[in-house]
Write a structure and sequence with these properties.
It is a single chain. Helix 2 packs antiparallel against helix 3 and helix 9 packs across helix 10. By secondary structure, the protein is an all-alpha fold. It has one domain. It contains ten helices and no strands.
Length: about 200
């Protein structure tokens, strides 16, 4: 029976991740009931990882306008580097230090979930061009890096944090923002496995 519960939780969390993010907030606490916190985090990330390539494939048509633009690399590189550094930090963290950080990380993700309706802006044209002045790009890149770092270290709620960060950068249609979120989160989470 418990295996079936974990299976259902993983499918549900993967679906939530593909749509908006936050699925790890289901699997991580469930896994902490049976394994250590760091192991629960890594297991949760592995169980949910395969939902990301599926989500990217499903939303690939929404990404066609994005891949030709140079600014995508300004988002992809910090996301990958953040995920890599977060994974390195996780591999060097013991369970005691990790468990002290988890409530704060969950709190950040929860606040973003609550603020999501305010953070996600819609544009009638559906365009996905950057919507901030060039002078603020370092702030945007730093934000994406910090989300990547969070995702590489903890992971749960990264999709919601990524949507929040992207909503400050672009006023694109929510479908485009979610597609871009799936792509950047996949890149971040992939680097995490090289280090965990």
């Amino acid at each position: 029976m418990s295996y079936f519960l974990y299976f259902v939780a993983t499918v549900l969390a993967g679906t939530i991740n593909a749509l908006a993010g936050g699925g790890g907030l289901i699997t991580f606490p469930l896994l902490m009931l049976v394994v250590t916190p760091v192991t629960a985090d890594a297991t949760s990330a592995l169980a949910l990882f395969f939902a990301y390539p599926t989500a990217v494939w499903r939303t690939r048509s929404q990404l066609e306008d994005v891949f030709g633009r140079g600014w995508l690399w300004l988002l992809l590189i910090p996301s990958v580097l953040g995920g890599l550094l977060g994974g390195v930090l996780l591999s060097r963290t013991d369970n005691r230090n990790f468990i002290q950080l988890v409530p704060w990380l969950v709190l950040v993700a929860t606040v973003i979930i609550v603020l999501r309706p305010i953070l996600v802006r819609r544009d009638e044209t559906g365009s996905i061009h950057p919507d901030i002045p060039v002078a603020l790009w370092p702030v945007a890149i730093t934000g994406i890096f910090l989300v990547g770092l969070y995702g590489g270290y903890f992971g749960s709620g990264i999709g919601i944090l990524m949507i929040g960060a992207l909503s400050f950068i672009s006023r694109g249609d929510i479908q485009h923002v979610v597609a871009l979120k799936n792509f950047l989160t996949l890149s971040c989470e992939e680097r995490r496995f090289w280090c965990s």
